[in-house]
Amino acid sequence: MTLLDFPPDLLASEQSIKIQVTGKIHALADQADWCHLNITQKTRLYESWILDPTLGGRLAALMGTEKVHRYIKDTVMRAYMRTKRPDLPTMLKRMSFRHTHLVQSYEKPHALLYDHTHLYTLTVAKEWRMALLSAYERATFVGGHLDRNLVLITDHGFDRFLDQGYRGMVESAGKRLDVDVHWVR
After folding, report:
1. Residue 114 DSSP class
2. For residue range 124-162, what is the model confidence (pLDDT) as tens digits?
3. What whole-number distance in Å separates Cα of residue 4 and Cα of residue 6?
């Protein structure tokens, strides 16, 4: 059976249920201060949402119980984290970095190249390795020398990122790649 075989009103009601459940989960994530929870705490919340008949129960009726966890994690909470991510151009303005010409915008991780000489990459702490390597690679492809190659790291107020030694190791890796690291609050 394909999507074309379903009546339009049934598809609309399924979409409506997903939107309602997503809104409720996002509100619960805000109450729990999701961005600052560790993995164990997040796992407990996932389990409670899956077992809640008004959340996971409604989703299970649409997609089957085996798909609910993945849907909440990969669709609902990924969308939530996108809404919490800071806007890179706004962040650069607040940090008094002003440029005239945007040359290129990159995705995964998000980065902006200004004036062919300034590359700014935004990442969450747990993805610092990919961000540093991407910044290095992108600098190489634009001619090898940038006046500024800066990786801005967010969501670092938990777990290993509280350890100054670990942060020092991340900064040292950046120096070896000719990439500056800035921990954004």
Report:
1. E
2. 888 999 999 999 999 999 886 899 999 999 877 777 888
3. 6
